[in-house]
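step=encode ok
step=design start
structure_in=
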């Protein structure tokens, strides 16, 4: 199964890649070698060794580990990965009105880790995946940040470039005035339960979008709409529940740029997995 996912993803990258330079290894080859390591949860150096490839899958020539390390941080490869992600983003698996959900998933590392980018929060050290997810195979917007960075702060950054319009569902920690305003500027009405349900709003000024959102949650229609927030929890569960999915970060995935690249690749494999499952279900 995992090799089929790898093959499908490499095929998509190859179709999007425009070989305009005379480099020995195209960006599609660099992606293929890196993804071979990611889908097998192995270091990049493992994928650079020919004995770890079946004959029918191995590229004609394998780059060295230093070449991989250098090329994985180039702007050209970043663009190719973004194109692959945008292509998968256009594939909708849940046909529904524009309803997005926002949440975070912790990516812990061991406390003895010397990773200078990882941070501690409530006794846990690591990173967090922040995502805004709708009906597409990949998140509408996402990023990875150290674990001690506030979800509210990251949410404001994610909402700044959120396309479209509709409803955005979050848990009670997103119930803060400036996030309602940020969501409204992007065309979304944020729905989040009140942080302290037993407290009155008081006399201080509140965003009209917050008042509207809290009032909507009191209605039957709002409660039914908010139930769709469970979808993002299902998305995170799906992301970790198949061979090659997002397991706990291995010890060789350290520093923020490596974690982001690893998580992005896992998101792409998850998208291919969901697409394959949807096709199998449709054909049954």
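sequence_out=
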């Amino acid at each position: 199964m995992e090799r089929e996912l790898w093959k499908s993803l490499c095929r998509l990258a190859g179709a999007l890649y425009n070989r305009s330079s005379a480099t020995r290894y195209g960006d599609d080859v660099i992606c293929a070698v890196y993804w071979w390591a990611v889908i097998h949860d192995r270091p990049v150096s493992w994928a650079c060794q020919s004995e770890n490839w079946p004959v029918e899958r191995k590229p004609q020539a394998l780059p060295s580990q230093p070449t991989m390390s250098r090329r994985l941080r180039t702007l050209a490869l970043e663009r190719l990965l973004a194109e692959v992600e945008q292509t998968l983003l256009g594939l909708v698996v849940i046909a529904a009105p524009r309803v997005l959900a926002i949440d975070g998933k912790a990516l812990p590392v061991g406390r003895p880790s010397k990773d200078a980018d990882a941070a501690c929060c409530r006794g846990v050290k690591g990173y967090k995946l922040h995502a805004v997810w709708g009906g597409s195979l990949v998140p509408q917007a996402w990023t990875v940040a150290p674990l001690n960075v506030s979800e509210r702060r990251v949410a404001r950054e994610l909402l700044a470039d959120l396309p479209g319009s509709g409803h955005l569902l979050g848990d009670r920690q997103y119930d803060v005035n400036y996030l309602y305003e940020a969501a409204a500027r992007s065309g979304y009405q944020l729905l989040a339960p009140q942080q302290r349900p037993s407290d009155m709003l008081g006399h201080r000024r509140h965003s009209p979008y917050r008042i509207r959102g809290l009032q909507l949650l009191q209605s039957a229609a709002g409660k039914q709409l908010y139930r769709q927030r469970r979808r993002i929890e299902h998305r995170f569960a799906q992301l970790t529940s198949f061979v090659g999915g997002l397991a706990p970060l291995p010890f060789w995935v350290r520093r923020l740029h490596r974690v982001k690249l690893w998580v992005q690749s896992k998101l792409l494999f998850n998208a291919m997995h969901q697409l394959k499952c949807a096709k199998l279900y449709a054909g049954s």
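step=design ok
step=annotate ok -> The chain is about 45% helix and 15% strand.
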